[in-house]
Design a protein that fits this description.
It is built from 11 helices and 13 strands. By secondary structure, it is of the alpha/beta class. The radius of gyration is 19 Å and the shape is globular.
């Protein structure tokens, strides 16, 4: 039995991850600040599925609260930290940059310091496909250079990877970054396209289709993300003995450091996602075609070869099945 700290437990991926850990008999101490970036009630409803379960404790705590985070690590002995708490969203970062600095940079330092000083055996943390930024070579590989982010959100996630490497090097803290690709599914985020489209279509309102519907995303079902997260968290990062300082591999290191993509490895055009959604809802969408938004990228596509090689897992849920499960949950949750 492993004792985990999981951050962002009232979030989309965090709540699913904790349920899976508890199902297999682990103990989890969860934190979340329950901020109002989106519906606090939705976060409380996710949390309600966890509270009262054997092996789970919750504390409302902000990652940027340095004394509070120090006390958390001092009072508990965590074996593994799964860090999923963050300020998410590309477009929100254009108008609220300080929220990303507080949560994603200051908060991440507090996580690193807690792990460093209290003997945590492995830190697995959420990065993002957004780090690929201006890259256009497909599929996106963890072995590609990612030095050209196109949003502050992406820049903070790239910074997390750099900060983690520093701690892996200086303090031999094993760290693994997980670049998630467009996660969707039941209990998802209301600011994501699938939720916004479903909400608008059922209300008879038009949907905003950016880049004239030509965006392509590697939509990844939440159960696949969680399976990847837990397998990687169980697979403690180790130094790469073949790593070369003259030809440095961005995904590995002489230090106990790793980065992985977790994506479906099958990009879907936005217009096809809408068609699948219309089929499950039994209603056609009224589409408002708009140009690409600042900070967005035209396509994402995950190379997951290293994930398969190291932990034996490849995401495989089809967009048709995944959207169907989301629609079923959405109707039940909203009594629609």
């Amino acid at each position: 039995m492993t004792h985990y700290l999981v951050t962002g437990v009232a979030g989309f991926i965090g709540s699913h991850t904790v349920r899976r850990l508890l199902d297999r008999g682990d103990t989890v101490y969860g934190i979340d600040n329950l901020n109002d970036y989106y519906s606090v009630q939705l976060k409380r409803d996710r949390l309600a599925l966890l509270e009262g379960r054997p092996g789970f404790e919750f504390q409302q705590l902000d990652l940027a609260d340095r004394p509070g985070m120090s006390e958390l690590f001092a009072n508990h002995q965590f074996d593994v930290v799964i860090h999923l708490g963050a300020q998410a969203g590309v477009r929100y970062s254009l108008t609220n940059p300080h929220a990303y600095v507080d949560s994603n940079l200051v908060g991440f330092v507090n996580i690193l310091e807690g792990c460093r000083h209290h003997g945590v055996k492995h830190l697995a943390y959420a990065s993002s496909s957004s780090v690929y930024g201006a890259n256009t070579e497909m599929p996106f590989s963890i072995h590609h250079n990612v030095d050209h982010p196109v949003s502050l959100y992406a820049a903070t996630k790239k910074a997390n990877e750099l900060m983690a490497h520093t701690y892996s090097h200086l303090y031999k803290l094993p760290t693994t970054g997980l670049r998630f690709f467009t996660v969707y599914g039941p209990w998802g985020r209301p600011d994501m396209a699938l939720w916004l489209f479903t909400q608008a279509i059922l209300a008879g309102q038009p949907i905003d289709v950016f880049n004239e519907g030509k965006m392509r995303r590697d939509f990844t079902y939440v159960d696949d993300i969680v399976e990847g997260v837990i397998r990687v968290a169980d697979h403690t990062a180790a130094p790469n003995p073949q790593w070369s300082s003259s030809h440095p591999d961005p995904a590995t290191s002489f230090a106990p450091y790793r980065v992985y993509n977790i994506g479906n490895n099958q990009p879907v055009e936005l217009m096809y996602l809408i068609e699948v959604l219309e089929g499950h809802l039994g209603t056609k969408a009224v589409k408002r075609m708009l140009p690409m938004q600042p900070g967005d990228v035209p396509a994402t596509f995950a190379d997951v070869d290293d994930l398969i090689a190291d932990v034996g897992f490849r995401p495989a849920t089809t967009i048709e099945d995944g959207v169907g499960r989301f629609v079923k949950w959405y109707r039940e949750y909203h009594n629609r």
